[in-house]
Specification:
CATH superfamily of the largest domain: MFS general substrate transporter like domains
CATH architecture of the largest domain: Up-down Bundle
Shape: globular
Order of helices and strands: HHHHHHHHHHHHHHHHHHHHHH
Helix content: over 70%
CATH class of the largest domain: Mainly Alpha
Radius of gyration: 22 Å
Distance between the termini: 45 Å
CATH topology of the largest domain: Growth Hormone, Chain: A
Number of domains: 2
Amino acid sequence: MADQSNVVISKDLIFPFILITFCFALWGFANDITNPLVKAFGTIFNQSAFISSFVQFAFYAGYCFMAIPAAIFIKKYSYKSGILIGLTLYALGGLLFIPASLGGIFWPFCVSFFIMTCGLSFLETSANPYILSMGDEATATQRLNLAQSFNPMGSIIGILIAKDYILGRLNKLSSSERIELSADQFELVKMQDLSIVRGPYVTITIVLVVVFLLIYFTKMPKKDGDGSTLDLKGTYKRLMANQKYKEGVIAQAFYVGAQIAVWTYTIHYGTEVLMGEGMIESEAAAYAVNYNFYAMIIFVVSRFICTFLLKYINPGKLLMYLSILALIFLIPVIFVGGRIGLYALISISGCMSLMFPTIYGIALKGIGEDAKLGAAGLVMAIAGGSLLPPIQGIVLDNMGVELSYLVPIICFVVIAIFGLRTVKRSFS
């Protein structure tokens, strides 16, 4: 009989593996179609960057709110059940774009985003360990890396749809021109724009229903779900006594905050640069999404390069180097501006590419069964993405888009310190 220990995924699990891997692309799509909407909602509703940033607050708050309930649910039932719940909530959030857009009020959209990401929290908490479990432990990391490679593919599709089917089709009136409209004219333009915004979310809801049915009727490997519940008290005590884990959660929160802040306001930064070169606001905003696309390409390429470098460089040391490089790129972003600042801004994505999985791996290494709740804690840390964008939005409204990038500096300093402390531990 052939040795199966080096097989990444066995033949009988290929179709289940494909279905779960597709979920990685689905949450990548949701993450990156949302970033440009902060700028879009600001224009549509004629509101500040701070108010519009509550899109991100609601979006990433869902991750925090649902992570531990998802871990408890999966432990009691199964990964498959967790994924089905996640797809249901994701689809419900997308479906709620219909009444939100018909109502013409901003805050119902935030509710839709929150419900959507409660579903994404279920998906991420379920899919990552489920993929790890689909085969031999020796090939688990390869299996997860293969599945994760589809996440940025979904992100790229999300960025392109945001560019071509949302920002590119919105009314071309600038913010200042919308202010001059009568109340009835403004309402008409707003409602037309909101009908454009809801289109992709209704479409993805249909896709989610199809994926739900495929997974529901496919025989999937039964993993976890032993009917028991997590020892929350005991596990919590052990995790809180683990300094490396606690620092990892903090570093992860600051990383996600930095990532979302950098990507969310790339549209604002690019729009100002392009308007300074003579482009009108609506065209500049639509074209600026291209820079989010370039940033994602850099992010993907850098992930492969950094994964290779990990064979030769200590993870904590590489994390520290990448954080320092991000801080260097932020100097022209803040103090030079223009095209140079814009190119430096998208280059930061190359520094961020390996941060999430590296922090994740360092924090969970060696904690055994506590990793189930520990992983939920790291998913909760994604809430950093809900807190940093509003703070940066306040700075942007009062000091301008260049100086707003003082906020990510704090984040990368925290990550660099975590990397340094990891290096010291590994050699102590």
